[in-house]
Amino acid sequence: MTDDARAGAGGSPVTATGVLPFPLDFEALYLKNQEDYHRFARAILNDRQDAEDAVHRAYFEILAHWPDLLADGNVHQQTWAILRRTVISEKLTTYRDNLAELTEDNDVARALCTLPARQFDVMVLRYLCGCATADIAWYLGVSASTVDYHGRKAKQRLEQAMPARIRRSN
């Protein structure tokens, strides 16, 4: 995270002796996830700067609640929930409304927009961000088999939502 981004969270990140240190486990979480978190945010927000800003805001919220997150036990699921809420709540309505513009197949885009949150996350992470099942499971705080289940259910919903003319062409 940059000094500019830290300053945007309110309060100064710098003391007379330098930058305030982050908890080591928080830094590890940041280093492990920041690239995939940014890819997810870019896929949703469709803008590099908006994605970067949203991910930084999510990390500020994570840092603000860090002791509680550690005490809760499932840091990965909780941090994913914060990221998802920060990124998606900002633009989800607009994204879903405009998703048809991002693809030539408007029926698929509309169907994707009707998926429940977990199924939507799995499909975006798997097919738009290219994340592996194990990483998706880690981000969502669920097992790999649960990720596969959400992926299967999402595919079933998408197939059911497709007009017959599209299903026949596949």
Describe it.
The longest helix has 24 residues, at 75-98. The radius of gyration is 18 Å and the shape is globular. The chain has a two-stranded antiparallel ribbon with strand order 1-2. Residues 1-15 have low confidence and may be disordered. The chain has helices spanning 3-7, 24-45, 48-64, 66-72, 75-98, 106-113, 117-128, 133-140, 144-161, 164-169; strands at residues 14-15, 18-19. It is an all-alpha fold and 170 residues long. Strand 1 and strand 2 form a beta hairpin. The N and C termini lie far apart (44 Å).
Sum up the overall morphology in one term: globular
Share of helix, binned: over 70%
Amino-to-carboxy terminus distance: 44 Å
Structural class, judged by helices and strands? mainly alpha
Taken in chain order, the helices and strands follow as HEEHHHHHHHHH
For the structure shown, list the relevant keywords.
disordered N terminus, 2% strand, 170 residues, globular, two-stranded antiparallel sheet, mainly alpha
In brief, what are we looking at here?
By secondary structure, this protein is mainly alpha-helical. The protein has ten helices and two strands; from the N terminus they run H-E-E-H-H-H-H-H-H-H-H-H.
Which helices and strands occur, and which strands form pairs?
Elements (H helix, E strand, L loop, with lengths): L2 H5 L6 E2 L2 E2 L4 H22 L2 H17 L1 H7 L2 H24 L7 H8 L3 H12 L4 H8 L3 H18 L2 H6 L1
Antiparallel strand pairs: 1-2
